[in-house]
Amino acid sequence: METYNAKVLVRLKPVVLDPQGKTVLSALKNLGFDEVRDARVGKVIELEIEGGSEEAVRKQIREMCSKLLANPVIEDYEIELNGERER
Amino acid sequence: MTRFGVIVFPGSNCDHDCYYVVKDVLGKNAEFVWHQERDLSGFDCVIIPGGFSYGDYLRSGSIASLSPVMSAIKEFSNGGGLVLGICNGFQVLVESGLLPGALVKNSSLRFICRWVGLRVENADTPFTRLMEAGKVVRMPIAHGEGCYFADAGTLGALNRDKRVVFRYSTPAGEETGDEANPNGSVENIAAIVNESGNVLGMMPHPERCSEEALGGTDGLLLFESIVSSLEGRTSPRQTLAG
Questions:
Q1: Is B87 a residue of the active site?
Q2: pTM to 2 decimals?
Q3: Which domains can be identified in chain A, with CATH numbers?
Q4: DSSP for A19-35?
Q5: Is the domain covering B3-231 a CATH 1.10.3720.10 domain?
Q6: By the CB < 8 Å criterion, does A15 face chain B?
């Protein structure tokens, strides 16, 4: 068994309106950052997890995402394990 | 006598109000049910009250949706038992998959606490049978994440099967503008039922408008509808305010 550090990035799906992102966008513009075209806010969940292999750990995290960490109706997720991302 | 169970999660805060309405206003049997409970036999209706279960951590209702009592509620609803989810209770129901869609942050990003108009879309449910379709009732809302979202396919099915029970509207029944739609919900949806019609989720608080002293009694119509469908008779109070 090895310990893995994983990051799960959870984002609202593009079709879901993100009022938080819109508010951040307008605040950035107020600060003079006129170059910003869009902003969306998501969340990062950091996991320290034990597993036999990278593949097994990824599989487990995918299960966690579908059961709890992300809501498939409104959110997409990406898993980052040892710096490698996978949707 | 008709028996109501009021589910209590850590962070529920409308549980006592629901209990009070059932027991003291309606004069029916009410019992609190702790979220670790696995058995709901003997109950006729289960209420998932409002509040902030588990501090709204991760997503509103997401942690509560995994508690032991939710498996019991699934079983209970499969057997035809009536389930009413109010506010956070609605969020728990969508997170648990008992109702479709999701509830996300209000489009204004603000917590909104005010009275709203609700147009009765379907009066042919156990929860609204004493109301009249097309009429507008008044109830208060109090939430930060009550913006209903569902994809086009789900919305199509909800509309086709008349599963939208209340839509936010002006007192005259119109759907346009912020006054009508307080939180940005798609198609002004405020309440929906499941396919078999025995599970209702709603953002407005009927328990906060079940006595004149609280400024309105339209909420009582909802509770009385439940009692009348369970006891198989119509209540003498058939008039609809507003």
A1: yes
A2: 0.91
A3: 2-86 (3.30.1280.10)
A4: HHHHHHHHHHHHTT-TT
A5: no
A6: yes
